[in-house]
Amino acid sequence: MTHDQPAGPDGPTWPFATAAYAFAVAMCGTTLPTPLYALYQRELGFSSLMITVIFAVYAVGVIAALLLLGQLSDVVGRRPVLLAGLVLSAASAACFLFEHGLAELFAGRVLSGLSAGLFTGTATAAVVELAPRRLAGTAVLVATAANMGGLGSGPLLAGLLAQWVPDPLTWVYVVDLALVAVAVAGVLLIPETVGGRRRAPLVPRRLRVPRQVRPAFVPGAMAGFAGFATLGLFTSVAPSFLGEVLGVHDPAVAGTVVCAVFAASTAGQLAMGRVGVHRALPWGCVVLVAGMALIFAALLVVSLPLLVTGALVAGCGQGLSFRAAVTAVGDLAPAERRGEVTSALFVVLYVAISIPVVGVGAMATAFGLRHAGLVFSACVALLATTTAVLLALRPLEGGRRDQVCAMSTKRE
Asked: Helix %, strand %, coil % for the chain, to 5?
C-alpha cells in the first residue's frame, strides 16, 4: 500500500489505531496545564481572574481555526492537516516549557487552540476513513473515545507528574513532546484518504444556520453552551476550587477530578445511542441540572465527595446532551451545508468554554472563589432547565433517527 492510497476495506488496523493515538495526544496537550495553573500562579503571582483569561484564549485559537481552516483537510488531505496540528501542539508545549512570564502562557494556549481546531474534525474523519471494514461499526466511538479520553488524560497525566516528579513545569512538557514525536512519526506513515487535492484559500467563512435546522440548533446550542461552560470551569479553575475552598492542594487529586468529568462525558455520549436523540437532549439537560445542584451543595457545605459526585453527574449530562445536539443538528442540515452548520454549533460551544469562566474569574476577584462558583452553578442550572422546558414544550422530531440509533446499538 502506498502512502497516498486509502486503507482498503479489509486493510491493516495500524493506520486506524495510529490516527486515534494522534487524536488522543493532540487533545491531551490542550488540557495538560489544568493542574499546573496553581504552580504558575505561585511562580508569577497572578490572580484567579488571570487563570481564567489564560485558559480562555485557547478558545480564540479554536474559533480562528474553525472559521479559517475548518474545511482545509477536505482540500489538501487529512495527513498534512494532522501533521500541522501536531506541530502546533509541540509549539504550544515548547512555549510552556520555556516559559518566562505571561506572554509564553498566552502564546501556548493560543497555539493549543489552533491545534485543537485543526484536529477535532480532521482526526475524526481520518479515524473513520482509516477503519477497516470489520471495525467500521465502532470507528465513530473510537474517535469519540480518543477525543474525550485525550482531554481527560491531560490533567491526569500532568497532575500525577506534578505530584511525584521534581520540576513538573519542565517534565510534564518533556513527556508531552515525546508523545507528540511518536504521533508525528506515526502520521507520516499512515495512508492519505483524500484524493483530488487542490490549493485552498484562507478565507473566513460566513456561518449561517438554515431555517429548517433552527428548531434543533437553538436548543442544541443552549444545552451545549451549558455543558461546555461546565467543562470550561473544570479545566480552568477546578484546582483553585479544590485548593482555596476545599483545602485540597494535591495536583494529582485535581487532575483526577478533571479526568473524571471527561470520563463521565464519554459515558454520556456512548449512552445516547440507547436513549435516542430526541430524549437524550432534554434528559441530558436534566442530568446536568442535577450535577450542578450537587456542585452547588458541595461548595456550600465544603465537601470533596459531593464535588466529585457532582462532577461525574454533570459530565454525564454534558456528554448525553452534546452528542444529541451534534446528531440532531447534523441530521437536519442539508448535506452540502452540514460542515458549515456543525462549525457554527462548535463556535457557540467554544465561546461557552471561555467567556463564562472569565466571568467566574472576575467574580472571584470581587466576591471570592466560593461565591463565584455558587453563582456559576446556579446560572448553568438555570440555562439547562430553560432548555429542558423548551424541549418539553416543543420536542425534537427524532423518531426515525432514534429508531436507527436503536437498531445500530443492538447490532453493536
From this structure: 80, 0, 20
272 C-beta neighbours (distance < 10 Å), count: 25
Q: CA end-to-end span of the chain, whole Å?
A: 30
Q: Note whether 28 and 178 are within 8 A (CB).
A: no
Per-residue pLDDT in tens (0 to 9) along the chain, 412 residues: 334 444 445 667 888 899 999 999 999 999 999 899 888 988 888 887 888 888 889 988 988 888 887 777 777 888 999 999 999 999 999 999 998 889 999 999 999 999 998 888 788 888 888 888 877 777 777 887 888 889 999 999 999 999 899 899 999 999 999 999 999 999 999 988 877 655 555 566 666 778 888 888 999 999 999 999 999 888 888 888 888 888 888 888 989 999 999 999 989 988 887 888 889 999 999 999 999 999 999 999 989 999 999 999 999 999 999 888 888 887 887 766 666 677 788 888 888 888 888 888 889 888 888 899 999 999 999 999 999 999 998 887 654 444 444 434 444 4
**Residues 297, 310: contact at Cβ < 8 Å?**
yes
Closest of 318, 355, 164, 386 to residue 255, by C-alpha: 164
CB atoms within 10 A of CB 343: 18
pTM (two decimals): 0.81
Cα–Cα distances in angstroms (integers) from residue 32 to residues 27, 46, 54, 83, 253, in the given order: 9, 19, 13, 20, 14
| Whole-number Å distance between alpha carbons of 289 and 201 | 43
CA torsion through residues 15, 339, 73, 93, sign: negative
CA atoms within 13 A on the CB side of 269: 25
Q: Which stretch of DSSP H or E encloses residue 187?
A: helix 168-189
- Other CB atoms within 10 Å distance of the CB of residue 330: 18
